[in-house]
Amino acid sequence: MHHVAFDLFRAYRLSPAVSLRAEPFGALAYHFGTRRLSLVKSPELVTVLRLLDSHDSAAGALDAAGVPIRQRARYAVALAALADSEVIGAR
Amino acid sequence: MRADTAGQPRRTAALTEQFKAGLAAPICLTWELTYACNLACVHCLSASGRRDPRELSTAECMRVVDELERMQVFYANIGGGEPTLRPDFWDLLDYSVAHHVGIKFSTNGVRLDKRAAQRLARTGYVDVQISIDGATAEVNDAVRGIGSFAMARRAMDALAEAGFGEFKISIVVTRHNVSQLDAFKQIADEYGARLRVTRLRPSGRAADCWDDLHPTAAQQRLLYDWLCARPDVLTGDSFFHLSAFGSPLPGLNLCGAGRVVCLIDPVGDVYACPFVLHEQFRAGNVRQPGGFARVWRESELLRRLREPASAGACASCGQFDACQGGCMAAKFFTGLPLDGPDPECVLGHGQPELASTCLPDRPRPSAGHSRTGRAAPVLIPADRIATRAAT
C-alpha cells in the first residue's frame, strides 16, 4: 500500500459520486464512478468526512469533529487512503 | 467482496467481528429474476429451467429496487435462470440504474446480440458477466449444453465490438476445467475482460454431480497457488476455505451468509445466501409487510447467523482463523454438520465425515425448476478432455 502525501491544511470534500451508508463500525463508502467500496472504520471518521465540505481545511473539520491534535497524524493516514481511492478530493 | 479499507484505528480482526455481526444492508445481494433458462447446466445452483408462475411482476420488482435504493444497497448481482429471458429485463435494468442501484448481471449470452451490446455500452453503471465453464467447447458444452460455448463467445464478441469496456468472464471451477485456468485467463486477456472464478457448491442440480465435479485435493492446491499468483483474478471471495493452505486469499475470508450476503429468488423468497435454496435457510419473502428491509433486519434466521458461531469440531484446528470452517452451503448439502469442517477442507478434516454420508441421505435442495424430458448434457471423463484452449 502506498501512502500519498495528505495536506491537512487544504480544503477537501466528499466526492459527489460517493454514497455513505452508516454501519455499526462506521460506514461503507461506495463510489459510483470507480465502483469501489471503501470501509470507513470508525464513526468519528464518518463525522469528519461529513464536515469536510463546510470547513476550509481538513484540520478545521478534524477540530470541529473534536479530534484531539495528537490523533491528527492517524487521521491524516486514513484521509490519505480515502483520497487515494477518490472517496474525498481537494476542492 | 474486495474492498479498500480506510481509517485504521482498529485492527482488521475487530472489523471481521463487525461483519460477522451483520450490516445495515447487504453488500453482496444476489437477485435471481427468473427460474426460466434456455440452458440446463448440470451444476445449476438454482436448478433452473422453467419459469415459476409466482415470479415477481415488473411492478413488484420495481418496488424491490425502490427499497434497495432506500437501504443504500449500492448494486445488485442479477442472475437466474437466465435473467435476460424476462421480457422486462431491460426496463428493470434501466429503472434500477436510474434509482442508484447498479446492476451486475450474469448471462449465458443468449440475448446478448449486437444491438443489446450497444445498448449496454451506452448504459452507465452496468457490469456484465458471461458464464462459461470450459475454455474449449468440448469441456464447456459437456456441462452447459451443446452450442453454449459458441453462444457465449458470440456475446463476448458483441460486447467487445460495441466498445462496452471491461466485462467479466465467469467460471465455476470443476475437476474438468481446473487444468484450463491459464486458457481462461488468455481468453479474458484477449477481450480485455476480467476473469472471475468461483467455487462449485453442491447446491441445486449440483447436489447430484458435486461428487464427480468438485476439484480433487491436488487440484485445490494448484488452484490456490494459481490464485495467489494472480491477484487480478476475481473470486467473489468464494475460495476462503483454501486460505488454510497458507496466507489468506484477498477478501473477507468468512461466510457472509445473512451477514453481508443474501439472495432474493424469483418468487421473492429471501435466502441467507445464493447457495442455500432450502427451506431451512429461507428468511422470508419480499411480498410480506415490511418488505425486504424487514426480512433483512428482523428475520430470526438471519439474526441467528449473525450470532457468534461455535467452531465445533474445528475448534482444535490451528487453521480455523484462516478458513473459518469453510462454506455453510457446502457442508449442508453434503450432509456435514454446520459447525465442523468443510467437505473440501484442505487439511482433509472433512473426509471421514464425507465418506460416511451418501447422496440419498443428504438434504435435498428445494425450489427445483428443472425441465423434464430434456436430454441432460453428458459428463465426459477427465482423461479425455483436451486442455489446450481453442484459438
Defining traits:
heterodimer, A: 91 residues, alpha+beta, three-stranded antiparallel beta sheet, two-stranded antiparallel sheet, 3 helices, 5 strands, B: 391 residues, alpha/beta, nine-stranded mixed beta sheet, disordered C terminus
CA gyration radius of chain B, whole angstroms: 20 Å
Characterize the main sheet of chain A.
3 strands, antiparallel
The strand line-up of the biggest sheet of chain A is 2-3-4
Instruction: Determine the strand fraction of chain A and express it as a percent band.
Output: 25-35%
For the biggest β-sheet of chain B, the strand order reads: 7-6-5-4-3-2-8-9-10
- What is the share of helical residues of chain A? 25-40%
Total number of helices of chain A: 3
Shape of chain A: globular
* Assembly state: heterodimer
Number of helices of chain B: 14
Number of strands of chain A: 5
User: The biggest beta sheet of chain B, please?
Assistant: 9 strands, mixed
Query: Mean pLDDT of chain A, nearest integer?
Result: 92
In which range does the helix fraction of chain B lie?
A: 25-40%
How would you spell out the order of helices and strands of chain A?
EEEEHHHE
Please name the two chains that share the biggest interface, counting residues whose Cβ lies under 8 Å from a Cβ on the partner chain.
A-B, 28 and 23 residues
Q: What shape does the CA trace of chain B take?
A: globular
Overall strand count of chain B: 10
Task: Kindly provide the radius of gyration of chain A, computed on alpha-carbon positions and rounded to a whole number of angstroms.
Answer: 12 Å
C-alpha termini separation of chain A: 25 Å
In short:
The complex is a heterodimer of chains A (91) and B (391). Chain A is α+β, with helices and mostly antiparallel strands and 91 residues long.
